[in-house]
Design brief:
Layout lengths: L21 H11 L17 E8 L2 E6 L11 E3 L4 E8 L8 E4 L4 E4 L9 E7 L4 E5 L8 E6 L21 E14 L2 E8 L4 E6 L3 E6 L2 E2 L5 E2 L26 E6 L3 H4 L1 E8 L11 E10 L6 E14 L10 E2 L5 E5 L35 E5 L29 E4 L4 E6 L5 E5 L5 E7 L10 E2 L2 E2 L32 E4 L1 E2 L2 E2 L4 E6 L12 E5 L12 E6 L70 E7 L10 E7 L5 E6 L9 E7 L15 H9 L21
Parallel strand pairs: 1-4, 3-9, 10-35
Antiparallel strand pairs: 1-2, 4-7, 5-6, 5-8, 8-9, 10-38, 11-12, 12-13, 13-14, 13-15, 16-17, 17-18, 18-19, 20-21, 21-22, 22-23, 24-25, 25-26, 26-29, 27-28, 30-31, 32-33, 33-34, 34-35, 36-37, 37-38
Amino acid sequence: MSDHPDGRPISVPDSTDGHRLTSRRRVLQAAVVTGGVIGLSDLGRAQEPETIELGGETSGWQGVAPEAIAGEENPTLELEAGTTYELTWENLDGLPHNFVIETDDGEELERTELLAEQGETQTLEFEATTEMAEYYCEPHTATMRGDISVGGGDTAGGGGEEGDEAARFFEPGTEIGVQTLAEGMTAPTDFAVADEGEGRYFVADQTGELWIVGEDGLQDEPFLDVSDRLVELGTFEGDYADPEQDYDERGLLGVEPHPDFAENGRFFVHYSAPPNDETPEGWSHVEVVSEFMADEERSQGDPESERVLMEFQSPQYNHVSGPMAFGPDGYLYVPMGDGGGANDDMEGHVDDWYDENDGGNGQDVTENLLGGVHRIDVDAEGDDERPYAIPDDNPLVDQDEGLDEYYAWGFRNPFGITFDSDDRMFVADAGQDLFEEANIVEAGGNYGWNVKEGTHCFSTDSPSDPPEDCPDSAPDEPPYDGQELQDPIVEYPHVYEGNVVGIVIVGGHVYEAGEIGDLDGKYVFGDWTADPSREEPAGRLFAAVEPGGAAEQPDDGMADNETGDVGADGQDVEEEATEDVQDEPIDENNETGNETDAGADADLEDEVVPRDDLWEMEELQVAGSEDGSFPYFVRQFGRDDDGNVYVLANREGVPQGDTGAVMRIVPPGEGDSIETPDGAAEADAEEAENATEDVQDEPIDENNETDGNGA
């Protein structure tokens, strides 16, 4: 799910653009700090200004006045060139927002400072010009974005229409079908094989129920119900939550049976519990990893058998990670987010070695277990009264500093973990303002957060405007010893050529079933939703493959872990994809403090992400849907012992309703016909429309998000 800055101004370099009046901008910025009206009469404007009123919240700009835009989300502003307008907006959710106007080429014309107090208003007075094409909130460009039409001309737009090939980040890829195995859950968050060879699966539901799913669908009663042990969903503590919101990332988030479950009946769950005696005042909740026992028939879990293994005190309600995984070594790998909020620098986020950024838990390995992947031995107890043992070869064991549970660190919200048949561990990590990523994780690896977001530098002062330079390695002293910051294998932007690519990554699994030749050996993952308002179920399903790594890929002679000069569709990257990296749509002349020529950008990085250093990426095409899309929120993925991959999805953006489903990826001719929410049964359509809640981060379980988690 993506996050929000904490209210500090986002620094944007001055432009040499002739349309901007620099002196006027200074007047604007000075007045906005006090929330006052910016008058421009001293700049030679005599007419009485026309008025526009909006409400600002993360899900989108809400039209208030004039009557033509009342009740609309991200309404098109119909303006007349040369007319002066007085635009007033109210902060509806208490999160940082500002108002920016730009041209169709991404040149900034107007920009205010951030306003972060709920109920505060801000007024901008400006004269409409024919260059004006879009308005947006800088921290939330994906969702708070609307068109401007001046003088009836066709000036609205965002650098590309949806579906326009030139505006695609992911090229269309392998066609698949999806076959519904079970439905009727609320928000499925994890999937695991309950009995090898028996076609019986665990599916965790965010609201606290652990279900058994088989070939006949959902079991009538939950295998285990921990809803009475969850923090109350939709109620929040701490500075980063709106008490009025319904969106929540907490709940029952993970399930993993012991490798010998059929013999010993042991299984492990991850859920969000209320604060306990160890929780600092004002903190949100506790993330719990517990062991339970099943009965002799393995048909029911015993709720009284709980043995708590790990507790993570969580300052905010988000970045709570989700699934766990047993590795091929028999140890349990437990990912955990950085504590939530934004930037990794809020309450509960400790200082780290990087002085340029405040925070953060992602780079700290000595004070807490937030922001990392942990590795424990659940088949033994520790010498220090831990209910688990620490493997001797964990990277910080016997080091002078560092907590022994850590296996890898530098994560924001590791959301989705899996091992493939080559014993490689894949972990997705939900980004903040700009980029989403997935990694191959190794012992002692540092994956960059909050020094970097994906392959790009990150700044807590200006999260939507990343600096050009930052360290590529940690300090050459214990416990880091100069380790390099590892780059991901998958990375994509939130917005590309004016179109939303995604909001929060949901980590998946390598498809190894062999039934879809073009998919075999590829890492299947997704994004929670590509709907800019975050209200509609518009998930996306992706796949990535190491060049030369899949069965259907040509042998180019490259060794493992090498990359070729290819783009997302396996072709050479087009020269036109040479844009700078930032939160705004990637358009020609998009301003980042560097001068650019239309269609050429020789002084900047060649691509929005370094495709040559990433795996080849594609968007899966879903047969049976209206246009190859996937009209659900993507919640998580699962995999069975035969290498089949499952998609966990629903039609709600909050933990409500019963639209949750488990779907197996199958050859396109074997998939179901998928109705969009508009064409579904009336009840489902109404539920989808009611999913219009305030989304602050990654999706639920999530991402995402939001990703959500999210966030």
